[in-house]
Amino acid sequence: MTGREIVFDIIMLLTKFGYGNDSRLSEDYMFYKVNDYRAKEIRDTYNRNGFVEPIWLQDMGIMKCTPVNPAEDLTFQGLCKCGNISKFTIPPVVSFGNRDGLDEGVYRVASVCNTKKYFPISPEKLNEIPKGHIREKFHHFMRISNGLYLTHNPDEARVVLVLENPLDGYILETEYIESGSLIVGESYMAYENQVEHNNKGYKVGSTFTAVNSDFSGKGKVKLATQKRAWTMDDNYPMSKTMMEVVTLKILTQEFKIEQSQLADVTQDSRDQNQLIGNESSQKTS
After folding, report:
1. What is the C-alpha end-to-end distance of the chain, expressed in Å?
2. CA atoms of 198 and 176, how far apart (whole Å)
3. CB-based burial of residue 144 (10 Å sphere; 0-12 exposed, 13-18 middle, 19+ buried)?
4. pTM (predicted TM-score)
5. Where are the alpha helices (DSSP H) in the chain?
6. pLDDT in tens, 29-76
């Protein structure tokens, strides 16, 4: 389900209990509560099961890094003797688990090509690595607040996070697109060979704006902009089971609705939907 659909379902349930004129039922407020209860449920689920569910993860794509000068970066100053450090800032993540004092919310840090993984380490332990030791060859990252500090001074890195607010993340749409699936007004790029669209040829690396859904030629097509911001209309990073738990807790803990009342309303809604379905079937028969 999308974030908008989850919020709408909760508001619809609450209006059945007379909360329709309550200012707390704004979509923004409800989405904030969904994020809040999701974070709590992620922590509880991880503590029970001991692993990170893939649906929680959001790939932030390529992040630009900035070289760190300890004399200028007061946050970093004095924390590490090691040079050649780069930094980038991440949005707030869900804090859970523990790897060397670092959260599982920062799930993976790697090079752009994903061939080099950065291992979490505390500044103190990085300082303890002797000069010339083989561990200096390993790639490490340190998290200080929302800043990630990476050894070996990379220009770019790729990070996968469990975000507090999914809207801080991105959707990566990197798949090839078939002819007949272009969206009018969207920008696309030609790959591997020339493509033709609207009676015009486009060589590899050139972009075009779709005026119809088709293209031809030996080339392939991808979106010109393959990284976009996450929206309320994208699938929310939470399983259906967790969504049901989060919805129940918001209704019972935040709005003090008894579970017995909720069960009655839910059953009434199912009966109404069944009645509508039966009426529709009779009309079409």
Report:
1. 32
2. 19
3. middle
4. 0.83
5. 3-15, 27-49, 123-127, 240-249, 259-284
6. 999 999 999 999 999 999 999 889 999 999 999 999 999 876 656 555
Any idea which residue has 């989405």 for tokens?
31
The SS3 call for residue 208 is strand
Number of residues assigned to the chain:
285
**Tens of pLDDT along 154-177?**
999 999 999 999 999 999 999 999
Question: Which residue bears the tokens 């030996």?
Answer: 218
Residue 157 is given by DSSP the state E
Beta strands per DSSP E along the chain: 58-64, 66-67, 85-89, 106-110, 117-120, 140-144, 147-151, 156-161, 170-172, 187-191, 195-197, 200-202, 207-209, 216-217, 220-223, 227-229
Exposed/middle/buried for residue 122 (C-beta within 10 Å: 0-12, 13-18, 19+): middle
User: Phi and psi for 161 in degrees, rounded to 5?
Assistant: -130, 160
